[in-house]
Design goal:
- The protein contains 4 helices and no strands.
- With 157 residues, the chain is mainly alpha-helical.
- It has a domain of 82 residues.
């Protein structure tokens, strides 16, 4: 077996100080009347309870404040997401501007132009300098537009 370590001078000194402190405490307790000692103990217990309840109240308030900040942050994020969904829904339901060209009204002759042949000749000279209007080739009118998404269908987003 291994030999036990011998106690150092410091540990001997520490043990003697602890022993002296305990004996001094016992002597002080014996000098204090029992009713005063009980009252002091009760006051100390009440103080500890009050301190403990105050600490728990502060912790509850801090928790509540943290929860409120978390809720605010979550609500802000939800608002951002709902705006994104709303923008997606409007972009899907409304066709792009290039898909449908603006419809033109058919050209009609004015009856006043036919009654005045001189005015028509001057107008013809002015239009002779213009380039003819180019029309874009239209797709066949038999094609159907793409079906609009169901607003109740949330799985598409």
């Amino acid at each position: 077996m291994a030999a036990r370590k011998r106690p150092s001078a410091q540990s001997k000194l520490l043990k003697r100080a602890v022993k002296a402190g305990r004996s001094a405490l016992r002597q002080a307790e014996s000098r204090v009347p029992p009713d005063v000692r009980k009252q002091l103990e009760r006051t100390m217990k009440d103080g500890q309870k009050t301190l403990h309840s105050a600490i728990t109240e502060v912790q509850k308030r801090l928790d509540r404040t943290a929860r409120q900040a978390d809720l605010d942050m979550v609500m802000k994020r939800l608002e951002g997401l709902s705006n994104q969904v709303r923008n997606l829904a409007t972009s899907v339901t409304s066709p792009p501007a290039t898909a449908r060209p603006a419809r033109r009204k058919p050209a009609t002759r004015k009856s006043s132009a036919a009654a005045k042949p001189a005015a028509r000749k001057t107008a013809g000279r002015a239009t002779a300098k213009r380039k003819p209007a180019r029309r874009a080739a239209r797709k066949s009118s038999t094609s159907t537009p793409p079906p609009s998404p169901d607003p109740n269908d949330v799985g598409a987003f």
